[in-house]
Specification:
nine-stranded parallel β-sheet, metal ion binding, metal-binding, TIM Barrel, 2 domains, binds guanosine-5'-monophosphate, hydrolase, zinc, adenosine deaminase activity
Length: 386
């Protein structure tokens, strides 16, 4: 639907490595493996990840080939299989140059879809073979943001100190190419495979980079892995430091963890697919905003189909919710496609969808003038589109 593309939108749940262009994965330079790969695509029924690449990685001991063989052959992957895909993607992308490149492209793609504010989340990674620390990983992400030149990028606080300034000032980014502008903020993710120490390192990094566009913390990764108590000290520390937190919550049935997460009072949660009645009531009473990822939930078979998705149960009583993409690359979607899907599945018209997009302004983690700017952008779009 054309109007879903043309209206301004806010994206609050997008994982960097899940949002890579197919074409970039197709032609990525595997300098460390000296292998080229082809035929990667999340939405074909053909082999979706190069056999050549997977075999070679298997031979090098980077992956267990038999573990991924069936995953790479299908277009829709169950949740556990999606995480195997991410392991493969990370092997290809975790070097500074590639991280900067995919960041730049992901921002350009969201901007082209008329996303005016993007909270991009990513897990800072250490990769000794590439001399990469969590810090240098995030620096590469920031470098990627600064290198965007097809659209004006607002990344907060760049001028407060010169630690990351290099040759790229905020004014430098406002280069006048095109009239579009996108606000980009980062959430640093803790992966559920990580230790308490690694989680703490991520939060400390986020605190340090608060003035450089980092606005919050996310807990993500395979929900069947890791224990809530492992991450709790780092999450509590983040809270004390004033960093807003969003949690992947209820992707699988886990009543004890779901209750602990809600009791923690995160600023937002993602998914909320498997909540029991009591937790559902609590979620609503606490009015915790939910990041809804329709295509992701359906493709991973967490939810059977759009028409039985809990979107409706939240939307009807006006519970705060935000439509999001999760992983545009892995699930072959876009934010406009998510709006179009919600519109057709739940019978919502242009007016309701615009209001939904506009309401998302209230749930962003960025503070200060951004909120006012976004309100003005939506007010002006309202006049233009009506
Ligand atoms: P990255 O953090 O490497 O930039 O983005 C990919 C990572 O995001 C994955 O390895 C995984 O930890 C997380 N992720 C992406 N999609 C999902 C999802 O649907 N659920 C959960 N729990 N984590 C996800």
């Amino acid at each position: 639907m054309e109007w879903c593309v043309s209206m301004p939108k806010i994206e609050l749940h997008a994982h960097l490595n899940g949002s890579i262009r197919d074409s970039t994965l197709l032609y990525a330079e595997l300098s460390n493996l000296a292998v080229s790969f082809h035929s990667f695509s999340a939405n074909t029924t053909e082999s979706t990840f190069s056999w050549e690449l997977a075999r070679e990685l298997g031979e090098k001991g980077s992956i267990v080939f038999s573990d991924v063989e069936h995953v790479i052959l299908k277009s829709d992957r169950a949740l556990n299989e999606v995480f195997k895909m991410f392991d493969l993607i990370h092997i290809i992308t975790t070097d500074h140059k590639t991280v900067a490149r995919i960041t730049k492209e992901v921002i350009e793609d969201f901007a082209a879809d008329n996303v005016v504010y993007l909270e991009l989340r990513t897990t800072p990674k250490r990769n000794d073979s590439k001399a990469m620390s969590k810090r240098s990983y995030v620096e590469a992400v920031l470098e990627g943001i600064r290198s965007v030149n097809s659209v004006e990028v607002d990344l907060s606080g760049e001028l407060k100190t010169d630690a990351f300034a290099h040759s790229h000032s905020v004014d430098g980014l406002r280069n006048g190419i095109g009239s579009k502008k996108i606000y980009v903020r980062l959430l640093l993710s803790i992966d559920r495979r990580e230790t308490t120490e690694a989680a703490m390192e991520t939060v400390e990094l986020a605190v340090e980079l608060k003035d450089f566009g980092v606005v919050g913390i996310d807990l993500c990764g395979n929900p069947n892995v890791g224990q809530w108590l492992t991450f709790l000290p780092a999450l509590e520390f983040a809270k004390k430091q004033g960093l807003p937190i969003t949690l992947h919550c209820g992707e699988v049935p886990n009543p004890v963890e779901i209750r602990a997460m809600l009791d923690f009072l995160p600023k937002r949660i993602g998914h909320a697919c498997c909540l029991e009645d009591e937790d559902w009531k609590l979620l609503k009473r606490l009015e915790i905003p939910v990041e809804i990822c329709l295509t992701s939930n359906i493709k991973t078979e967490t939810i059977a189909s759009a028409d039985v998705h809990h979107f409706a149960d939240l939307y009807k009583p006006n519970h705060p919710l935000i439509l999001c993409t999760d992983d545009t690359g892995v699930f072959s979607t876009s934010l406009s496609a998510e709006y179009a899907l919600a519109s057709s599945a739940f019978g919502l018209g242009k007016r309701e969808m615009f209001q939904l997009a506009q309401k998302a302004v209230d749930f962003i983690f960025a503070s200060g003038r951004v909120n006012e700017d976004l309100k003005a952008i939506f007010a002006s779009a309202h006049t233009r589109l009506n």
